[in-house]
Design a protein that fits this description.
alpha+beta, 4-stranded mixed β-sheet, 233 residues, 38% helix, Immunoglobulin-like
Length: 233
């Protein structure tokens, strides 16, 4: 009898244990399902972790982009400052050549700051007029006998050539200043006046005594006057 009661008690305990085991298994399955859902669902830990990683990566890329832009701007400003400093120290040369004339202060070269400007004034020698003006071999025009270099970034050479201006030789009658003869000439030679002079003029009661050659004026023109003296009876 006692053995039967022990057996019943054992079976009862065994049944409770089986029930507990089943309950435990069910609880574990439920917990596993919840855990899997928490890890892989729409709002699961894995997805949230992935999204957090993507946000972090995007933030890092934006930071790198902003830093690169900042460094690019810094290098640009640095280069501009260095270029400006270099350009303020750099100078360009203007070489000047003038034929039959003069230039401001009779210079043969002039230093001009980089990106600077320079105006040169030219003057022809007496009896000369402008023939050609060129900069680095290219023909240019002088404005009011001047040329301006603007925004100079290289060396330059300016060449201005004046040619002999056409001039006149005029012979006048000394008693009336009436023109006897006028000739337009390109160049003067040693025997030019002699070769062009007119016949000796006449004046009743007077003797022609020769010509007085005047000095050329600022344009190179020459006036020659006939001279007389009364004839003594």
């Amino acid at each position: 009898m006692e053995d039967k009661e022990k057996l019943k008690k054992y079976e009862k305990i065994k049944g409770i244990t089986l029930v507990a085991l089943v309950v435990t298994i069910v609880v574990l399955i439920i917990l596993a399902t919840i855990s899997i859902g928490a890890l892989s669902g729409e709002k699961g830990i894995i997805k949230q972790a992935k999204e957090a990683k993507e946000v972090h990566e995007k933030g890092r890329q934006e930071e790198e982009k902003a830093l690169n832009e900042l460094m690019t701007e810094y290098n640009k400003e640095k280069n501009e400052i260095e270029n400006n400093e270099e350009s303020t120290q750099k100078k360009c040369k203007i070489l000047v050549e003038v034929v039959n004339g003069t230039v401001t202060d009779n210079i043969t070269e002039k230093d001009v700051p980089y990106n600077g400007s320079c105006t040169l004034h030219f003057t022809a020698n007496p009896g000369y007029t402008l023939d050609t003006a060129s900069v680095d071999g290219t023909t240019v025009s002088l404005i009011n006998d001047s040329y301006t270099f603007s925004d100079v970034t290289n060396d330059h050479t300016i060449r201005v050539i004046y040619k002999k201006k056409p001039f006149s030789i005029s012979w006048l009658d000394g008693r009336t200043d009436t023109p006897i003869k006028t000739v337009i000439c390109e160049e003067m030679s040693d025997n030019l006046i002699e070769s062009l002079k007119p016949s000796d003029p006449t004046w009743d009661g007077h003797e022609f005594t020769g010509w007085t050659i005047g000095e050329p004026d600022e344009d190179g023109n020459i006036v020659i006057v006939a001279n007389y003296k009364p004839i003594e009876l």
